[in-house]
Amino acid sequence: MSIDVIQQEKKEKRRQAIDLRRKGLSYSEIKKRVNAPKATLSYWLKDIKLSKRQSNRLKKKQIEAIRVGSKKKTEQIKKMNEEIRNQAMVSVKDISKKELWLMGVMLYWRERGLNENDSDSRKGVRFTSSDSHLIKLFLKWLFEVGELRKEEISFDIFLEKSRERKRAKVINYWSEETGFNKEYFPRVYLQKIKRKKPIKDGGRKTSKKTENGLLRVRVKESSMLARQIAGWIEGVKLNLKNNK
Question: Is it the case that residue 136 has pLDDT exceeding 50?
Answer without folding.
Answer: yes
